[in-house]
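ok trying again, last paste got cut off:
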Amino acid sequence: MSNIDKIFGIHAVESLLTRSPQNVIQLFLLKNRKDKALTTIENLAKQAGIKCQSIERKKMDERVRGNHQGVIAEVKISDAMMSETQLLDLAKEKADLLLLILDGVTDPHNLGACIRTADAAGVDAIVLPKDRSASMNSTVRKVACGAAENVPLVKVTNLARFLKQLKEEFVWIVGTAGEAKVDVYQAKFPKKTAMVMGAEGSGMRRLTRENCDELINIPMAGSVSSLNVSVATGICLFEYVRQHRC
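nice, full thing came through this time. structure:
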C-alpha cells in the first residue's frame, strides 16, 4: 500500500533520511533556524538529492498537527503490509518465529512505540485486529521512527480465529495478564512464539485470552499496578531475544 503523507519531528525525519531517503519527496525546514539538529537533517537531505524549502513557522504549523520541531518531510508511504495467508505460510516455513500481537491498542502513540520496539527486537511481523486498533497515520509513523516501513503488519478480521490458525502451525501463543501465575522471567518461550499484548486497562479480550497457550505477568515491585503497553512489550520481546538470540 502506497500513499503520500507527512512525517515530522527531528528524530523521526532523521531516521527516515538515514533508512529510507528514497521515500522522501521534499523537506520543509523552519526559516531562520540554525542548529546542529537541523543542519544534520539538511546535510542528509542534500546527500540524497532531496529538495529543501525554508518556510515560516505559521505555515509549518498549518501543515501538521503536533510538535514538528521545525522539520516536516513529505513522503511516499509504503507500509510493510502482509496478508494473513502470507504470515501463516511464513509460520509454516520458519523454524524460529517471533510475532507481536496487539489486541486493542487504539492510541497511535502507543502503537508507534510498539512498532519501534518490535523492530528493535527483530520481530517477524505484527498482527493487529482490523476493528480494534489505531490506524496507521502520521503520528504512528513519527513515533515509530521508520520502523513502520520495515516491520510487516498483518491486519486480521477475526483475531481469535487467526490465533487458532497460528497454533496449527505450532506457534506458541503467550498472553500477558496481571493475574497470571508465571512471570516473564520464569517462562520458557519456544522458538516459534507469538506475544500477545492487550490494551492498557482492559487488557486482552476474552476470546483472545481463551486462545492463549500460556499467560504471563511482569513482576511489579513499586506502587504502580501496570506499565505502558510499549514498555511491557519491550520487556516481553527482549526476554524472548535473551533466551534465543543472545
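cool. The chain has nine helices and eleven strands. The chain has a mean pLDDT of 90.
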